[in-house]
Amino acid sequence: MHNASSISIVSNEFLPDEKFDDDGRIKRTGTWQSATAHIITTIVGSGVLSLSWCFAQLGWIAGIITLILFGIIMLFTSFLLVDCYRSPDPVNGTRNYTYMNAVKANLGMLQYKICGIAQYGVLIGVTIAYTTTTAISMAAIKKSNCFHKHGHHADCHVGNNPFMVTFAIIQIILSQVPNFQKLAPLSIIAAIMSFMYCTIGIGLSISKLIREGMAKTSLTGIPVGKDFTGEEKMWKMFLALGDVAVAFSFSFVLLEIQDTLKSSPPENKSMKKATTVGILASTVFYMMCGALGYAAFGNNAPGNFLTGFGFFDPFWLVDLANLCLVIHLIGAYQVLAQPIFRLLEDWSRKRWPQSALITKYYTLGNVKINLFRLILRSTYVTLMTTIAMIFPFFNEFMGLLGACTFWPLSVYFPIEMYISQTKIRKLSFTWIFMQLLSLGCLLVSLLAGAGSTRGLIASLKIFKPLGSVS
Q: Could you tell me where this protein is found in the cell (predicted)?
């Protein structure tokens, strides 16, 4: 316990003994390893669980090609993006602390505003979707134990709202971590958890294959028949493309992660190493989860392949996988929320530079507390949780939002910024190649957006506010 005398007020955010970088900010201490943890935490989200379903829609050929292709595209565009952290020179230029700052420095104010809408729109959307997804996983653990205790025919339906509130309380506490640099331990834990639940899913798939053999699969996915029309297959394939695109999307926080790296070796060099390891590891896990899940369940692969293993055999292992997923999303939420907190706090400091509420820091033992940070971040978490509780179909909307923002944030802006910064000649081979790549990814986003819109309309027909039940 600390009494009142142990609390002191610090006028400035930085303590006297802290070291600073060339730009006057606290010296960055991040390494390529910590950046890799942030990247894996962001990429390997709950979307990995739907990849076996994506394989069922696309089939073996298109499924494998799609995963490999998206991995290569994301690696290429990420390399372009990390070279835009400093402008105009990628090693000695001026730092761009955020994605939006990089767009502003290279492409001007109009595209800066468009980027802001896309980037913070998807970040807000993902934090809401993670609230919903985590609650469903928490509920799945309770349901599993209920079925194991009372039998599979027992009424074990569970309301998701209490779990959303629990998740919100945890996030309010964790959101007081001041910035990305302080999140490294949480990201490392979250990255380990993502590998754990992926590994459990892979292990369960292999076990099912050994016991029951390979399920009915196809080179082209679910065949068209009287119960599954060609039009329905087309829409499902579009939706699967969107799921894969969203599963690989992480560019919207890439420069924010890069801003945590120490300047020696050069940030872009360390970030390229981190990006390569992060995307390669994620692609391997994606391929194993998607392919083995499809082999185990065949054309009847569920949307979340962990739920397809049932509640009995072995129920505790599925519970462990869901628990790992919950811990992972707790960390991933913070990685995605930090850019939002930073934007709001930086704007507030500029708007009210003399405000004592914003500028004063209180020390409680070894912890610095800022009342404005406490109020702002707690309000954000509470608001996002409320939206998640009111709109239980939000995951469908997230699919639409992700499909719409994949092209601009992951492909268009990185390519256009790199062209502008390196002054690539118009109509040169490199310029034409990049424009064709951008056009192809735009087409994928449009198709995925169409499939997600159709799913959203269907969800609206059965919409029940505050009625999220697992």
A: Membrane
